[in-house]
Amino acid sequence: MKSSDDDQLREVIPRLRRFALSLTRDPSNADDLVQSALEKAIGAWHQRHTDGDLRTWLFSILYRQFIDNRRRAGRYATFMQLFSDEPSTSASTEDIVVANATWDAFDKLPGEQRGLLMLASVEGLSYREISETLDIPMGTVMSRLSRARRALRELDEGLHTNKRSVPSLRRLK
Fold it and tell me: Which residues, other chains included, contact 16 with Cβ-Cβ below 8 Å and sequence gap of 6+?
């Protein structure tokens, strides 16, 4: 790796961390995700296309690491539940209402939507760059981004109601 490559890599790290934080919602998990993505990138540095955008390549690696980690955690939880006598527990309604009240509209979006919005709005990637980063067709990027923006708008305007966070009351006689 040349010193110019090292400088470019250092310049992208804050953006990678911001993207990872939007996906994980936890600073320590975001740092771990950035570290594992950078380790993978440095290990595969010789495979990088020199004419491609370094930022796009690194975002792609980070996003794939995030998806892989989520899948691995889901498989592990399912496996552990098979050998556990304890039933799975969920948060109480009060905890859910309090947690949802503290999140802003952006945090209510699914990770994939948050990630897409971060790449397009904050990082300024084009549809083509996002398509290459996530390895999905450009039309899919455009439709998913449209749905993410619509969901964010609805949450901002209070049009979207989450049945877990907005209890419905009925009068019983």
Answer: 34, 37, 38, 58, 59, 62
Torsion on CA atoms 152, 158, 162, 165, rounded to nearest 10: 120
pTM: 0.55
CB contact at 8 A, 61 and 37:
yes
67 CB burial (10 A radius; 0-12, 13-18, 19+): middle
Q: Taking the mean position of all CA atoms in its chain, how far away is CA 60?
A: 12
Of 171 and 6, the one with more pLDDT:
6
Please name which of 150, 137, 91, 141 lies closest in space to residue 120, comparing C-alpha atoms: 141
Residue with tokens 């995700």: 33
